[in-house]
Amino acid sequence: MATDRDYILGTHEEEISRLGLQHDVWRPVVLDCWKRAGITAGKRVLDVGAGPGYATVDLANIVGPTGGIVAVERSSNFVNALREMIRGNSLTNVRIHEIDLMTDDLPAGDYNFAWCRWVVSFINDPPVLIQKLGRVMPKGSLSIFHEYGHYETWRFFPRLPMQERFREHVIATWRESGGEPDGAAPLPELLSRNGFMMRSARPHVFCLRPDDYMWQWPATFIEIYLPRLIGMGRIDREFADKVRADLASAERNRNSFMLTPLVLEIIAEKL
Questions:
Q1: Is the full-model pTM beyond 0.70?
Q2: 126: cis peptide before it, omega within 30°?
């Protein structure tokens, strides 16, 4: 089973809370995406890399009792959190599979959709995942991806040099863990190779002010990831304090703004 250290961002309670904030921030974008794709009552969805289940619950409520969600996740911590969310929301239309996407087969099913958010960017062999997805998704079904397309778009204006150095440490540790920050880049070729046709591609990047709710998404990530970088021996406390001071300065500056990392939304049909 996956341990906390198997995930570059961890699976601890603090990270589960951060993922909840992240989901809340992105929820309007995601709900619009699902509506445009056609996810509605009675549909069957494969939730790939479900994490602690925030999207799973939303999907289960949308498809209702006549539909169904199959959620796959390898972290025991996340699976336990997902089970609690399912119980807490009295959902009966969700099946959970605790499996590793790299070593286990995806569960077969008569799926209408697959949902895959920030998974391709973190696994060490995206071709294997897309190949497995190609095997289980029926003809005419849609697979939806939200993956980072250009992580270095994340920056502040006026520039915060310490934040840019922090971002480079994030990218380096991400790649050292076997992932790829710009995970969307190989998807068009991989999908084509495995019997999918891209139906649409849409970029999501936001220009935020400090009083914007979405600002808390990257800001919270900085606060949580700085101690992890210290623990890895990549930075010291002085470096971390300078990053925090830079961020605090930006939040006090009424003329500052932040660009978020570019996320690419891809919707592909299985031929």
A1: yes
A2: no
